[in-house]
Design a protein that fits this description.
Blueprint: H1 2-15, H2 17-20, H3 40-47, E1 51-58, E2 62-73, E3 76-85, E4 91-98, H4 106-121, E5 126-127, E6 131-135, E7 139-148, E8 153-162, H5 176-183
Antiparallel strand pairs: 1-2, 2-3, 3-4, 4-8, 5-6, 6-7, 7-8
Length: 188
């Protein structure tokens, strides 16, 4: 009986090893060779032949002038559009998308990408039928798909965004000791 209990316990551990002992990262500091705060030139240097400059695409808070190609998820080739902050010019976001989105089965692609991301980053912190979100101290990863049949739009995207410190440093949000040191003037 003791031997049977031991065998059952070992079998349980082996069967549940993937989920019970999966190591989820404590933080994600961007994607691949990219790191938050890099410049356009640093991205091009880091990805060498896979990086290419393109005409500037403008968005509300970002712009893109660098694209990284030459990687795949499953059977499909992907590209990464690097998003730089309009004010600082530093990397703050990345959009991963299929190189060719024609004939894209978004549901199947979503399933493939969700398995890959869960294997890499663990279970998502938020999950709906069309979206999954992983939140880490410095990065939020969002997998999302959209279909608009009447317009023929089928899109699957993986967004990496740098998390911003939401606390503003103003006299109303810092304590008096911090304010004193922040504005202290020393005599010559």
């Amino acid at each position: 009986m003791k031997k049977l209990s031991y065998i059952v316990a070992v079998a349980f551990v082996v069967l549940h090893a993937n989920s019970a002992f999966a190591i989820e990262p404590k933080d994600v500091h961007c994607w691949d060779k990219a790191k938050w705060g890099m410049t356009e030139d640093q991205i091009v240097e880091a990805f060498s032949k896979r990086a290419e400059r393109h005409q500037k695409n403008k968005y509300k808070h970002f712009y893109s002038t660098v694209r990284v190609k030459g990687f795949s998820f499953g059977k499909r080739e992907y590209r990464a559009d690097m998003l730089f902050d309009n004010d600082s010019g530093l990397l703050e976001g990345i959009n991963l998308r299929a190189q060719d989105e024609k004939f894209l089965n978004v549901v199947d692609e979503f399933k493939i990408l969700s398995k890959l991301l869960q294997t890499t980053y663990g279970n998502p912190s938020e999950k709906t039928r069309t979206e999954m979100v992983w939140t880490f101290p410095s990065t939020t990863i969002r997998l999302k798909y959209t279909t608009i049949p009447m317009a023929g739009i089928n899109i699957v995207r993986v967004y990496f965004r740098q998390n911003q410190n939401k606390e503003k440093t103003s006299p109303t949000t810092i304590n008096p000791e911090q304010a004193f040191h922040a504005y202290k003037v020393t005599a010559p």
